[in-house]
């Protein structure tokens, strides 16, 4: 389900008026390069708030148009586990900047100098989610994305009260200790479980080889042209444990967010669990969430295969080059 198609589809659903009246809030912690697109299907009913500590990048984000979001604002600050100044470690690839010091072992193991080499250090002000919320600087968020290169665990600890109202999250996790004292994927998963979330997917998986070489099934022209890569990082998708939800408005929003993220089948599971709780709300708002999920599933069934075919066709070229001569040398 593409963002454009699903956005149009959601606006045509029986729940569209409910979604617009109730509203959603999305928070992107680590918005470098553009705010997260996961909530685009509900953008017309969503306030988007992005955090970015680097002044130049924050300014670029602030100058971007608000559309298609209902509203959009950028906060030029770092979110972390404490309130106060902290050091931001910036390697040659600035997108890998972290509040944790980089682990030089990664360079020895994988040759990832650009991501883990010694760069520059800048002092930034960090805030916890709980402090921002307590000061009324940050509203309750329905969706949160956290991509801060290693400080995710600290943010979860510093946002326990704030995240009680959050219905869905996307959070980057590492399977290698890329930064010193970085909690790994299973530790983050345990924190999410303890805070009432269900982990439902692992996406954007990266597998590393030495020297930025392409991993299986590709090969390059080097002396060691092919290998499986080592599992390095990915993003967890999690949703609020619906069994703990007792409010019908919260349950309905959870159904809509889960479906809009593409997990229509699991949204139907949530709906079945809360059928009795949701019936009066559906009647009051003229909604039929079951029919809406069927409509979203049909839309996804048309757009997802086409997108997969386009990706497969694009991948034929590097696969062909891998087979017949190898990809270009490593950089």
Class inferred from helices and paired strands: alpha/beta
Alpha plus pi helix count: 12
Element-level helix/strand string: HHEEHEEEHHEHEHEHEEHHHH
Side-by-side strand order of the widest sheet? 3-2-1-7-8-10-9
Give the radius of gyration: 21 Å
Taking the alpha carbons of the first and last residues, their distance comes to 35 Å
Whole-number average pLDDT?
Answer: 93
Question: What's the multimeric state?
Answer: single chain
Structure summary, number of beta strands: 10
The biggest sheet, with number of strands, parallel, antiparallel or mixed sense and barrel status, is: 7 strands, mixed
Shape by Cα distribution:
globular
Beta-strand content bin: 15-25%
Low-confidence stretches: none
What's the helical proportion of residues? 25-40%
What is the fold's blueprint, element by element?
Layout (H helix, E strand, L loop, with lengths): L2 H9 L4 H7 L1 E6 L16 E6 L3 H8 L8 E5 L2 E2 L4 E7 L14 H6 L2 H4 L3 E8 L1 H6 L8 E4 L5 H6 L10 E7 L10 H10 L2 E12 L21 E11 L7 H13 L3 H10 L1 H11 L3 H36 L7
Parallel strand pairs: 1-2, 1-7, 2-3, 4-6, 7-8
Antiparallel strand pairs: 5-6, 8-10, 9-10
Helix pairs in contact: 1-12, 9-10, 10-12
Can you describe what's shown?
The chain is of the alpha/beta class and 331 residues long. The chain has a domain at 77-211 and 229-240. Helices cover 38% and strands 21% of the residues. It contains twelve helices and ten strands. It has a seven-stranded mixed beta sheet. It has a three-stranded mixed beta sheet with strand order 4-6-5. α7 links the parallel β7 and β8. The two termini are 35 Å apart.
């Amino acid at each position: 389900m593409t963002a454009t198609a699903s956005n149009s589809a959601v606006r045509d659903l029986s729940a569209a008026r409910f979604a617009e009246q109730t509203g959603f809030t999305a928070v992107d912690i680590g918005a470098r390069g553009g705010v997260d697109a996961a909530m685009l299907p509900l953008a017309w009913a969503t306030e988007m708030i992005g955090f970015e500590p680097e002044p130049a990048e924050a300014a670029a984000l602030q100058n971007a148009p608000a559309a298609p979001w209902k509203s959009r604002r950028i906060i030029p600050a770092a979110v972390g586990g404490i309130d106060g100044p902290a050091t931001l470690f910036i390697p040659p690839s600035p997108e890998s900047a972290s509040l944790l010091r980089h682990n030089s072992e990664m360079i020895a193991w994988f040759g990832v100098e650009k991501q883990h080499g010694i760069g520059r250090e800048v002092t930034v002000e960090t805030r916890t989610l709980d402090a921002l919320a307590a000061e009324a600087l940050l509203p309750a968020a329905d969706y949160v994305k956290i991509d801060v290169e290693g400080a995710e665990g600290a943010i979860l600890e510093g946002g326990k009260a704030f995240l009680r109202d959050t219905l869905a999250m996307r959070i980057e996790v590492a399977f290698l200790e890329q930064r010193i004292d970085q909690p790994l994927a299973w530790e983050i998963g345990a924190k999410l479980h303890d805070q009432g979330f269900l982990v439902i997917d692992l996406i954007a998986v990266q597998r590393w080889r030495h020297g930025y070489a392409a991993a299986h099934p590709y090969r390059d022209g080097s002396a060691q042209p092919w290998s499986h890569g080592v599992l390095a990082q990915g993003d967890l998708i999690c949703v609020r444990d619906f069994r703990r939800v007792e409010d019908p408005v919260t349950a309905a929003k959870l159904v809509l967010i889960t479906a809009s993220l593409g997990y229509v089948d699991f949204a139907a599971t949530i709906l079945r669990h809360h059928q009795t709780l949701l019936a009066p709300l559906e009647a009051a708002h003229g909604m039929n969430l079951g029919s809406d999920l069927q409509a979203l599933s049909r839309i996804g069934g048309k757009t997802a295969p086409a997108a997969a075919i386009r990706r497969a066709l694009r991948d034929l070229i590097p696969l062909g080059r891998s087979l017949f001569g190898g990809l270009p040398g490593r950089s």
